[in-house]
Amino acid sequence: MALSPDEIFEKVREAMVGALGVDEDEVTAEATLTGDLGAESIDFLDIVFRLEKEFGIKIPRGDLFPDNLFTDEQYVQNGKLTEAGLSELRKRMPHADLTEFQNDPDVQNVNNLFTVGMICKYIESKVSGAAN
């Protein structure tokens, strides 16, 4: 049985609360993982583990958080993603809203892409793909 977007959000919220020790009301769709919820890079592993367990899916390394992209000289120059980097980011993160980021593709702003809502969209694509 397919999960509704609200059910997915609730399960993602539980995973965030468990992984980050934040209050439920802090976990909104717009909340950024690092800026708003205080996640650190080590927390991303715990988040992925909890999401895999909660939804019964496998999240390949770098699929949800493509961190290796932001250190690749092919895609980053002078601390900013190049056009090729933005194109690759769109391919790897179709579930992220890149509207603001592409106006200032500074690698320092990348963490703003990782929101609870982005994770929900990613999960939605994984569970709907698994159901087909």
Task: Describe the protein's architecture and organization.
This protein has 132 residues and is mainly alpha-helical. It has two domains: 1-59 and 114-132, ACP-like (Non-ribosomal Peptide Synthetase Peptidyl Carrier Protein, Chain A, Orthogonal Bundle), CATH 1.10.1200.10; 66-112, no CATH class. The protein has helices at residues 5-20, 41-55, 83-92, 116-131, and strands spanning 76-77, 80-81. It has a two-stranded antiparallel ribbon with strand order 1-2. The longest helix has 16 residues, at 5-20.
Key structural traits:
single chain, 2 strands, Non-ribosomal Peptide Synthetase Peptidyl Carrier Protein, Chain A, 132 residues, two-stranded antiparallel sheet, mainly alpha, 3% strand, 2 domains
Short description:
The protein has 132 residues and is mainly α. It folds into two domains: 1-59 and 114-132, Non-ribosomal Peptide Synthetase Peptidyl Carrier Protein, Chain A (Orthogonal Bundle), CATH 1.10.1200; 66-112, no CATH class.
In the residues, how many domains can be counted? 2
- What is the β-strand count? 2
The averaged pLDDT comes out at: 93
- N-to-C SSE string, H for helix and E for strand: HHEEHH
Global shape: globular
CATH class of the largest domain: Mainly Alpha
Number of helices: 4
Q: Strand fraction band?
A: under 5%
The largest pleated sheet is described as: 2 strands, antiparallel
CATH topology of the largest domain: Non-ribosomal Peptide Synthetase Peptidyl Carrier Protein, Chain A
Which bin fits the share of residues in helices?
A: 40-55%
Second CATH tier, the architecture of the largest domain: Orthogonal Bundle
Question: Class by helix and strand content?
Answer: mainly alpha
**What low-confidence regions span 5 or more consecutive residues with pLDDT below 50?**
none
